[in-house]
Amino acid sequence: MALQDEINEKRKEIRTDGYQMSIGEWVSLYESKEIDVHPEFQRFFRWTQEQKTSLVESILLGIPIPPIFVSQRPDGVWDVVDGLQRLSTIYELLGILRDDKGRPLKPLLLSGTKYLPSLKGKRWGKDESENGVDVLPTDARLIIKRSKIAASIILRESDDTAKYDLFQRLNTGGSQLSPQEVRNCILVMLNKDLYTWFRGLADYEPFRICVALSDRPIEEAYDLELVLRFVILAKIELADLKEVGDVGVFLTERMRQLAVDKSFKRLQTERAFKRTFDTLERTVGSDAFKRFNSKKKRHEGGFLLSQFEVVALGLGFNIHRPIDETKLPKLIQSIWSAKEYTDWAGSGITATRRLPRLVPLGRELFV
Q1: Is residue 256's pLDDT more than 50?
Q2: pTM
Q3: 166, 81 Cβ separation under 8 angstroms
Q4: CA of residue 9 relative to chain centroid, distance
Q5: Quick check: helix, strand or coil at residue 182?
Q6: So what's the pLDDT on residue 174?
Q7: Which residues touch 198 (CB under 8 Å, ≥6 apart)?
């Protein structure tokens, strides 16, 4: 197919519309539950109070705000694809934003800015004379409610995957979100129940003990990425590993397939996951994925992904077999004297090249 034919064909799959809407109209949509801002995303988007105030300042000064991308669901409700933090900030300012449990959040307290230092300490309020509250003046509130933000709408006649592709494109690269946080948002939109299942595995205490991650990786959802890697790679056909390419793209695509796969054996996978990390927690605990110093006869340092790829995936593949747990500590230590591991676990080796070597190594080691 020629390039222009491909362009013409794909353009037919995405139907869009767009128009200007006042902030008051965006508020009305939220209050009538005609727009879904996915409160589950709030843990992934981390705007500071200053960033939120900067948005309010821009609105008050008449600085154009980028459009909000939404996708129209079959029931007519709009899913927010891009612009969630902007809308959430507006709803928080007005004191109407709710968390994923439906509980109201505290109204936004504004900070002073370079151009509007008097914003400091201001809240929305309903009346300038509201007792004990320093509220925005009536004129400022009207400016905000009447200001317009464009809506760019992916219509429901579009290809089913269009909004997820768009979300990924808009929230990758220069975004503050980590790759797994982008995946988590896509998964919530695709299959919220499956996201909750992944979240439950990431919170499983033996898993948390074994990976022993610091606060920063957990904040960026790296624990969920490790769960996803286990689910996808522990039972993967070895021939498929040679076709992985970019591992991040591969994980995202396989996750999207899982989200719509009604034959996915969730219970069986969960059992294998928990048995694997129960076993590791009993035998090696937080040393499971750390470097072993043969001279000092001890594990050192922090979590190593290459070690996870051998130990967790190898043990997970064989977890249905009888395991002599007394031998596991020595087996894990022996990895560091295995040339197949040391040759392919270095920092200069890409995951694309590493996985086809380390995954089979783990499967053979824990037979």
Answers
A1: yes
A2: 0.72
A3: yes
A4: 31
A5: helix
A6: 46
A7: 187, 224, 227, 228, 231
